[in-house]
């Protein structure tokens, strides 16, 4: 009798748990897509180096955010200026299946930047990525509290503590509609 009950209940339990897992992944994928869509467009604003050798250095940035066709992720391209000096900046992040999010900031660790080795979309308006270059470990966080502003913070790990080193406050300067109502 016990085996009859198990043989009829076990397949239902597997179906229910599989369906619940798929629903959770679908919800997460939709939340991630919503965040990346919110970053699309033109952004400008000030930033500052808040720790380290160049602490107190202020700069201004211009970025264009985009999303890859048919994939979950984003690219941000543009540059920042300090006085008459300009520096190209870019970041590319894509979801790579079971590997999670992977990408690069400023050409990755093989170039002059950092590798993005993991992370997740925390909510529809916040994302946190793990960054890495040799012994340097840290996080890059983007917060989009509304359709027209974004805050980006880069922090590095120093003695088991995350220390913010770069902060930017960006404003949207395009007319891109990012609401949830689809055009007719």
Characteristic key phrases:
about 180 residues, alpha+beta, 10-stranded antiparallel beta barrel, about 20% helix, globular, disordered N terminus
- pLDDT averaged over residues: 83
Structural class: alpha+beta
Shape: globular
Strand content: over 45%
Termini separation: 58 Å
Radius of gyration: 20 Å
String of helices and strands: HEEEEEEEEEE
Annotation field: number of helices: 1
Oligomer: single chain
Helix content: 10-25%
Biggest sheet: strand arrangement: 1-2-3-4-5-6-7-8-9-10
**Biggest β-sheet description:** 10 strands, antiparallel, barrel
Low-confidence parts, pLDDT < 50 over ≥5 residues?
1-27
SS elements, strand count: 10
Please tell me about this protein's structure.
With 184 residues, this protein is of the alpha+beta class. It contains 1 helix and 10 strands; from the N terminus they run αββββββββββ. The protein has a 10-stranded antiparallel beta barrel. The protein is globular. The relative contact order is 0.14.
Q: What does this entry show, briefly?
A:
With 184 residues, the protein is α+β, with helices and mostly antiparallel strands.
What's the arrangement of secondary structure elements?
Blueprint (H helix, E strand, L loop, with lengths): L1 H38 L1 E9 L8 E9 L6 E10 L2 E11 L5 E5 L8 E10 L2 E8 L2 E11 L2 E10 L2 E12 L12
Antiparallel strand pairs: 1-2, 1-10, 2-3, 3-4, 4-5, 5-6, 6-7, 7-8, 8-9, 9-10
């Amino acid at each position: 009798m016990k085996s009859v009950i198990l043989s009829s209940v076990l397949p239902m339990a597997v179906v229910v748990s599989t369906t619940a897992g798929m629903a959770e992944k679908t919800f997460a994928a939709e939340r991630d897509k919503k965040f990346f869509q919110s970053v699309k467009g033109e952004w400008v604003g000030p930033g500052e180096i808040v720790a380290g050798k160049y602490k107190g250095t202020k700069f201004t940035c211009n970025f264009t955010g985009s999303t890859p066709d048919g994939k979950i992720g984003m690219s941000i391209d543009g540059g920042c200026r300090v006085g008459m000096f300009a520096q190209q900046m870019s970041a590319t992040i894509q979801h790579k299946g079971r590997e999670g999010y992977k990408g690069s900031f400023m050409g990755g660790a093989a170039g002059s930047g950092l590798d993005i080795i993991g992370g997740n979309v925390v909510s529809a308006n916040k994302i946190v990525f793990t960054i890495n270059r040799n012994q340097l470990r840290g996080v890059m966080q983007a917060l989009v509290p509304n359709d027209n502003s974004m805050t980006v913070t880069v922090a590095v790990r120093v003695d088991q503590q995350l220390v913010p080193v770069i902060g930017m406050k960006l404003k949207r300067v395009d007319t891109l509609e990012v609401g949830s109502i689809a055009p007719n």
